[in-house]
Amino acid sequence: MTKVRIQFNQTDDHIAEYAGLTASDLAQAVDDLRSGRIIGAIFREAIHEETRKFAVSRLETLGRIGQSAFEAQFSPFHWADYFRNTRRWQGLSRSVFSNGKYPVDLVRVTVGNVQKKGWAPLRLEEGIAIAGLMRFIDEGVGLMPHNDCIAADLSGSQMTAQIDAQLALNVMLQLPEAGGEAWICPRFFSRAEYDANRLPEPDHYAVRANALPAPVTIRAEEGDAYLSNAAHIHEVMGCTGDKARSTLSRFVDLADISRRIRSAVKRAGVEIGSALAQVIANAGTSLQQSGKLAT
Ligand SMILES: O=C(O)CCC(=O)C(=O)O
Q1: Which residue of 2, 182, 250, 277 is 20 to 30 Å from 106, comparing CA positions?
Q2: Which H or E element spans position 247?
Q3: What is the pLDDT of residues 190-237, one digit of tens each?
Q4: Pocket lining for ligand 1, CB < 6 angstroms
Q5: 113: CA distance to ligand 1 center in Å?
Q6: Which domain holds residue 41?
Q7: Is 60 exceeded by the pLDDT of residue 48?
């Protein structure tokens, strides 16, 4: 395993740094993010230079691949379409990387293997929620301070109630000439706090920066990847220059297995209860029909 270096170059930024992207380092970073020991992990040269260049050139032809669940949730049509398309997007994203080099596969296998630690990858009622998203951020554009909390966005879902941590992996495929750094504020907002600090439309997804503590900058270079807790408020600085900022992003949602079991047992209890009620009601109706039960 690569030795973890916790940087303290900006007061106390708690960013772990690894050489390369390996399953064991990824599992360690997931563990440390989940426990709050670190607020981000950078994997230097997570993809090789030829892999990166190939992905960038393929993306120039294909354009953006995928959509986020956040964008899809507002219309039933887009929501259904999202689940119809996740496998296709996954396949398309994989095709942008040469054989065996798609970083999301390593993430899926690693997260799939951590069950012994009590977590499992999240599934939604409708199916697999997470497709790798490959996108560009163009000149003059950034992302305002926001968090990504599928449990708050889909508060009616029993599956999202099992979430223990929502992490985000971003692979830096191409950086702009200037700007495009990611900032993380090590701060959780309750939904009420978040709503109280929202910016007006069209930036309603984001919150006012003056409500936040000083952020930590993620200094990821082309070919690096970083993993962070998506529930922390984060931001992408405006990009400048002719080169777009292009990334592969993937959420890593971890469900707490014990919470998952409790919720399955509860659901089964409700189902058994209502099945029993139905049997009793049916028996009552049959008895009535056969005249054996007084009305
Ligand atoms: O591209 C990044 O560095 C962060 C992306 C992000 O904030 C998001 O997908 O919500």
Answers
A1: 182
A2: strand 245-256
A3: 889 999 999 999 899 999 988 788 888 998 999 999 999 999 999 999
A4: 143, 148, 170, 182, 234, 236, 247, 249
A5: 25
A6: 3-257
A7: yes
pLDDT recorded at residue 58: 92
CA distance 176 to 286: 73
Compute the distance from residue 94 Cα to the ligand 1 centre, in Å: 20
- CATH code at position 157: 2.60.120.620
Nearest protein CA to atom 3 of ligand 1, as residue: 182
If you measure from the C-alpha of residue 207 to the centroid of ligand 1, how many angstroms do you get, rounded to a whole number?
A: 15
* pLDDT score of 11: 47
Note the pLDDT of residue 70.
Answer: 79
Number of domains the chain is built from:
1
| Domain annotation covers residue 106 | yes
For residue 293, being part of any structural domain is answered with no
The pLDDT of residue 251: 85
The residue among 251, 232, 255 whose CA lies nearest residue 107 is 251
- Cβ–Cβ under 8 Å, residues 173 and 101: no
d(CA 185, CA 242): 28
Please compute the mean of the pLDDT values over residues 57-71 and round it to a whole number.
88
3-state helix, strand, coil in the chain (%, to 5): 40, 25, 35
Helices (H), ranges, the chain: 23-35, 49-62, 69-72, 76-95, 103-112, 150-153, 191-196, 257-289
